[in-house]
Amino acid sequence: MTTNTFSIPKREDVNEINQIIFDSLEQQVGFVPNLYASYAYSEHALQNYLDFAGTPSSLKAKEKEVVNLVVSQVNNSDYCLAAHTTIGKMSGFNDAQILELRQGKATFNLKLDALAKLAKNAVENRGVTDEAVVAHFFRLGWTKENLIDTMALIGEKTISNYINNTIKTSIDFPEAPTL
């Protein structure tokens, strides 16, 4: 495990707005995940991220976890892989399914497989997604709205992956197994 280069700010270390958010996270989640605390180095980034991450989407929670796991794996974000492995289990995926999703596939569900393949291809190709992958996505019943929401989710997850990878956020979830 890599040692972090940033200490995780505590409630008393952040501005008043972020303190209110910390209090809300404590009530909702039971603790302030280190990722969110790290965003609080900025006066505005934590609220901006929570707003972005919390916007309505055509993707259901389980579908979002497919994208989150794929993107976090491609971007090698140990923190996000740990968090989304935990959330993926809470969403109903088992360990084998989570490992498969991280590889960008879902042989256990053809529709989720098309979503996983789209997310992986988009991230690996920096958004220049293969036309055949997009066509397959649509053939499996996904819509243009789903495509746009998937790309927005990829962007949101990439932001947190990059922050975690850059500041080496210490992991406060059970670590995800390596592939």
Textual characterization of the structure:
- By secondary structure, this protein is an all-alpha fold.
- The chain contains nine helices and no strands.
- The model has no long low-confidence stretch (mean pLDDT 96).
Order of helices and strands: HHHHHHHHH
C-alpha end-to-end distance:
15 Å
Radius of gyration: 16 Å
Estimated structural class: mainly alpha
| Global geometry | globular
Annotation, overall tally of beta strands? 0
Number of helices, where a helix is a run of at least 4 consecutive DSSP H or I residues? 9
Low-pLDDT parts are: none
Strand fraction? under 5%
Largest sheet: none
**Rounded mean pLDDT score:** 96
Helix percent band: 55-70%
Descriptive labels:
globular; 9 helices; mainly alpha; 179 residues
